[in-house]
Design goal:
heterodimer, A: 2 domains, 10-stranded mixed beta sheet, 10 helices, 22 strands, 24% helix, B: alpha/beta, 6-stranded mixed beta sheet, 4-stranded antiparallel beta sheet, 28% strand, globular
């Protein structure tokens, strides 16, 4: 058994954040309604405390190191040293995107640029929106990601100062992807950031949003991000989250999606970086006819931990959710997949399919896979499956028998395992980038040559 | 080209091959026939280098080199090719990528540079035509969702592209209907050459109606009990393996069908 986070550590860390809030409450600012929400959130956080491994949803992930480190928010106005060249590796080759960059959770206008966007589309800093249109935000911000049961959402809600605001008005199609790039960096002390994003898709609108989380070793950083999405009737959103923080980083992210009638959302989470990475995706069908594709790829090595917790709520009838998460674990790394699908009493004609497949590349890698379905309706089509395995030695032999050396054979088969998820990426330059990232993480993967 | 002497092989602790002697020269086609469980597939697999097969005695030399000491990939690079009885399905790796990786691995071993992309396309198209494989086939996942016939055609297609010196065909006729059998046999025959040898492992005579062997060996209980020419195969087809089993003095413990 792995050690259980001690209560003593949690209390210390908790009190540090609570004290931090008390001293920085004024600077955090925002409109009056938000200040009231923040207060409630920190109170709720104080009551909840950090989760321990006794908590059902945190059973396999040890937060001890995260809670032991004295993270501080970045000091406003102090140079962070991030220049445009640092961000190049996190872009997507020839892909033309509008790009908003946030460094340690704050908008960096000097690194950002907006290309021409259709009329009415807004891609902006949340902090600016809070200043200019606090009432617009009140209707949505903090309305989807609930902090009542989640200490990390509570913490984010108490502390966030900035993030991305994306609004696509009714009937508008945004052709080029919108890239939100979150860079985490620290100089001397460990730095924490709480970026908060809000994506509002009007009725019949369409857009592609990419969130990239970037960082550089040996910076010790903690990113506690929350993204809220409201997908209006018949809207189409393709969302990609690519987590490439340093292996010295801690990453906890929550994404909450509310889907209206006939909306179509695809959300892809690719988790490559971080000492500890936790991705919580919560989606909810609140009107009939919605469809959701939920994909994930986690690829870890060394002593990395990647924890994926997903929850799909079929509240309304006649919605379809297809979930596919794949994990590739090497070294002594740890992976978690905890998938939960709830089909409520009135959610007849639900179709829900959940698949989790894991590939262990070393005898010391470890994964916990817990698929789950809770069905209260009776006219539904639901299934789930989960596998954990190693490379098929017959396949390795087959490739070797054609002259391909053993390492290359193993690399090819490992890459092939990830391909199901990567091939569902609709934006070609993003797909190519992910191909390269996966290949570059294989032992001497560069030898694999061109895209498979 | 291939010289096997007193080869003994164990699989999962059990002795399957009990002293095989077989000599194959350039240009010859040898068929190894035998009832189920006689060790035919073991012979093919051990030549290709399957690691789970334990060689407990004897030698196999390929062009004078110790074949059994080589890694499977080096055997392929030296010119040994085995067509699998059960080719593996590998979704996510296209036939084109796989074959190009194989071609280049073999070229690299011989100190040659990687194949030009256009040359590769031309090479592949010519050989695909021979096996009646269409263009979409190269883009599909390796053997992914292929019918039994397509898989076997793909094996012979790979063989045609890689141009090995020694082709080992393991039950290549199994699971083929008569049309597919003809196509596969034509592919194999097109590769017959004075410089290339073949070892055709099969349970039935029918492939040998098309790919007529120079020599036929009958394998029973891990040993070659009879050798002859193509007529031997025809006799086996007519009379079954029974008459050979009766003719052959057998050790008492070897009472398996």
């Amino acid at each position: 058994m792995r050690p259980v986070t001690t209560v003593a550590v949690s209390v210390d860390a908790k009190q540090t954040y609570v004290a931090e809030f008390a001293s920085s409450e004024k600077e955090l600012g925002g409109p009056k309604w938000l200040r009231a929400v923040r207060k409630k959130a920190i109170e709720r956080f104080e009551a909840l405390g950090f989760p321990t491994q006794k908590h059902e949803h945190w059973k396999y992930t040890n937060l001890a190191t995260l809670l032991r480190l004295p993270f501080k928010p970045a000091i406003l106005g102090r140079p962070d040293g991030v220049v445009s060249e640092n961000l190049e590796p996190f872009k997507f080759g020839v892909l033309k995107t509008s790009q908003l960059v946030f460094v340690n959770g704050r908008y960096a206008p000097r690194l950002s640029y907006l290309r021409s966007l259709p009329e009415g589309v807004r891609v902006a800093s949340l902090a600016e929106m809070l200043r200019s249109e606090p009432e617009t935000l009140q209707k949505h911000l903090t309305q989807y990601a609930r902090f009542e049961d989640d200490p990390f959402v509570a913490l984010n809600t108490a502390f966030f100062s900035d993030g991305a605001y994306v609004e696509v008005p009714k009937g508008t199609v945004v052709g080029e992807p919108i890239h939100l790039l979150f860079a985490s960096t620290s100089r001397e002390l460990p730095i924490v950031a709480h970026p908060r994003n809000l994506i509002l898709m009007g009725a019949g609108s369409q857009a592609t949003v990419i969130e990239t989380y970037a960082g550089w070793a040996p910076d010790v950083t903690f990113t506690n991000a929350v993204t809220e999405v409201a997908a209006g009737p018949a809207s189409v959103l393709d969302h990609y989250k690519i987590q490439r923080e340093a292996e010295t980083a801690f990453h906890i992210a929550t994404m909450t999606v509310h889907q209206d009638r006939d909306s179509s959302v695809s959300a892809h989470s690719v988790s490559l970086g971080g000492s500890l990475a936790r991705n919580y995706v919560h989606t909810l069908f609140r009107a009939p006819g919605g469809s959701l594709t939920l994909n994930g790829l986690y690829m870890t090595g060394g002593t990395q931990q990647a924890d994926n917790y997903t929850r799909i709520d079929h509240v309304a009838p006649a919605c379809t959710s297809i979930e596919l998460y794949r994990g590739i674990l090497g070294g002594k790394s740890r992976g978690v997949f905890n998938g939960n699908i709830y089909v409520r009493k009135d959610a007849q004609k639900t179709v829900a399919r959940q698949t989790n497949k894991n590939l262990l590349l070393s005898s010391e890698a470890f994964v916990d896979s817990t698929p789950g379905l809770e069905i209260l309706a009776d006219d539904v089509k639901c299934n789930h499956s989960s596998t954990i395995g190693q490379l098929d030695e017959n396949a390795v032999f087959y490739l070797r028998s054609r002259g391909i050396d053993e390492e290359a054979a193993r690399n090819i088969l490992t890459y092939a395992f990830a391909v199901d998820v990567i091939n569902q990426v609709k934006v070609a330059p993003v797909r190519i980038k992910l191909d390269q990232l996966v290949v570059s993480r294989l032992p001497r993967g560069a030898g694999l040559g061109e895209t498979l | 080209m291939l010289e096997i002497k007193d080869l003994h092989v164990k699989v999962a602790g059990k002795e399957i091959l009990k002293g095989i002697d077989l000599s194959i020269n350039d240009g010859e086609v040898h068929a190894v026939m035998g009832p189920n469980g006689s060790g035919k597939t073991t012979l093919a697999q051990v030549l290709a280098g399957r690691v789970t097969y334990e060689v407990t005695g004897g030698t196999a030399r390929f062009e004078g080199k110790d074949l059994l000491a080589m890694k499977p990939e080096d055997r392929a690079r030296e010119g040994v090719f085995m067509a699998f009885q059960y080719p593996v399905e590998i979704p996510g790796v296209s036939n084109a990528y796989f074959l190009k990786a194989a071609v280049n691995a073999i070229r690299k071993y011989h100190g040659r540079e990687e194949i030009d992309a256009m040359d590769f396309v031309t090479l592949v198209q010519d050989k695909a035509k021979l096996l009646g494989l269409d263009e979409t086939f190269m883009k599909r996942g390796l053997n992914e969702g292929f019918s039994g016939g397509e898989k076997k055609k793909n094996e012979v297609f790979q063989m045609a592209v890689l141009e090995p010196k020694l082709c080992v065909l393991d039950e290549t006729d199994s699971g083929l209907d008569i049309d597919a059998l003809r196509v596969v046999a034509n592919g194999i025959n097109a590769m017959r050459s004075p410089k290339r040898a073949m070892l055709v492992v099969t349970h039935y005579q029918r492939l040998l109606d098309y790919v007529v062997p120079d020599f036929v060996h009958v394998l029973v209980d891990g040993k070659i009990v009879k050798s002859g020419d193509a007529d031997l195969a025809r006799n086996l087809e007519k009379h079954g393996y029974g008459w050979i089993l009766e003719e052959t003095p057998r050790p008492p413990q070897a009472a398996r069908a």
